[in-house]
Amino acid sequence: MPNDTSTETQLPEIMPDAVHIDAEGLDAQELNRQLRNLSQFHSYVVVHNPRARHNLGIGLESSSCEIHFLGSVGYYCGGFNAGANIVVHGNAGWGLGEAMASGRIVVKGSTAWAAGAGMRGGTIIIEGDGGPRTGIAMKGGDIFVIGSVGFMSGFMAHRGKLVALGGAGDALGASMYEGRIFVAGPVASLGADALERELDEADLRELSKDFEQLGLPWPQEPIRKIEAEGRLWYFDKHEGRIWRSI
Amino acid sequence: MSGAERAGSGDLPGRNGGGMRESPIWDRYVIEEIQAKADLGRYRISGFSLHRQLPRLDDLVFLPAAMTRMPLEGYRENCETRTVLGRRHGCVRPLDLSIPVYITSMSFGALSWNAKAALGRAASSVGTCTCTGEGGMLTEEREESTLLVYQMTPSRYLLDLEHLRQADAIEVAMGQGAKPGTGGLLPGAKVADRVADMRTLPKGIDQRSAVRHPDFLGADDMEVKLEELRIATDNQVPIFVKMPACRVREDVMIAAKAGADVIVIDGMEGATGASPELLLDHTGIPTIAAVSQARQALEDMGLYGVVNLVVSGGIKNGADAAKALALGADAVAIGTAALIALNCNAPIYLEDYDRLGTAPGFCHHCHTGMCPVGITTQEPELVERLEVEAAAERVENFLNAMVMEMTLLAKACGKSNVHNLESEDLRALTIEAAAMAGVPLAGTDWIPGRVRGI
Lengths: 246, 454
Description:
Chain A is α/β, with parallel strands linked by helices. Chain A has helices spanning 5-8, 28-41, 201-214, 240-245; strands at residues 19-22, 44-48, 66-70, 82-88, 102-107, 123-126, 142-145, 161-164, 180-184, 194-197, 223-228. At the A-B interface, helix 2 of A face helix 5 and helix 7 of B.
């Protein structure tokens, strides 16, 4: 089996009973069919040579199988995930885990734009940095980013939780509904209608539990909580200045 | 001579009507609009469709068979109406419709649950499909609709694998004809419990949906996105791309290149449950212009007949539908016409129209959530007014009437299949319509904007 040796060395020990697929030579439709099938019957599936190809691990439903991509993946990896556990041993392109309903995706590297776009549930863990618009339009679930997130992260987040431990770019949390952002480190700017609120006891308990489960140290810099103020939720003539400027 | 007699007659109130002359610039509607905005402090919001005259399909006429060709017996011979959409990528279940008319995307939220259910039941009864709109897939609509197109909008309400795999087609919405360049708008009065739950929103907020998709921007991204949808559905169903009629040629080419199986073009006559009013009147191009441009774009790519073309926006009867097919559409989608068949603007519950400051025939108050006939509302006591079975029967009757009108015209033109109608069967009554539709002005062989002989 040909190997992408640059990522092979980063691998944790893969279970000996893992099933191996070489992505080379398979079209995306066929590769995904194989993943869907194999993930129903095996605990581990290892995909060699993903070579940043798009649309890997789409619409997977198994919750008992762990799928490892040995290298970087392209757009929409884990899209429409409905229960699968996916580990990317590299970076990920746009829309990682978009429209995900459940399951877990771990990215050992960084992600491009819009990780977790519109996700409704499940967990995404990004060990590097999250790109712009991380958590955009998310409807539920959790995103944890060990590094920073790019501009407009959390944009129009309806619900769900975005945690970034290495700071954030411009317009963080713009135009949210009931989404929650917890960020440590520098924030370039808050977005329209984003408001910093005090962490309460319940927040601290929730984050402590998350960090413990994920094996993350408590960040040295203080954690800030960003939510919507709600001034954009209603038409109001007294808010005319806000409406004109956004 | 009195003072009144000395003054010019135009200066005198009541004399020859001079005192009541209306300025064509500052007419009563402009005055009312300015004063309304002076009170509101924002643009006005309105439902329904635009309030201006446009070149439209009514400005075209058919040339039935006479000496050069033979008509079919209008009441005795058959005319095929079956329409199959979405075979381009060999999906397992292309959308196989009995008629070339279906119910366009209108959301639960904009419409009541029973309006959605009635539309689904009516569509199923005549062998066609309906479309979810952006509010997610409503259980009752899925149950009533034999064939249901599931719309994926930038807001991604209730979008997940479970619902994706219940769909008979996926429609990626890039906007709508009523308000191109903006997202959906659902005033707080209509964001009731169930609507809020399906959209994951706080109840009662004025929801302004996103306009850009969260995870793709350009043409190349869209190609990857459409592939993702095809993989997620295991290529079982076709992928539609819906767009407002703006830069039609370029937009159609991009969608076709990206891999759309079906392209839906929504002209500026397309209606809405709520929109900033100025977008209704001042954005997009008319349906009559959009069809021809879309067809030409596909022909230039060698994809006409490969990528299917659906046209919507102001289609109100079988004549409009037949003309759209003659200009190059494979099917038409109707929205407002179906709502009117349901009972929109019907002369019942007159006191409630009056309460809205309107009357049957004039009501465009979908945005208030106070629809007197229970269609564009979430108020339980209003919703109850629309009885599903009776409403579905009215829409079924209307769809059947539309198809009879289409086949009547097709047979008069000598066609045994409505899809054999062609632009050569049409002439335009106005120069504008001739130029936009690309058919000759009646009585001439002149198509404005085209050099003769080319």
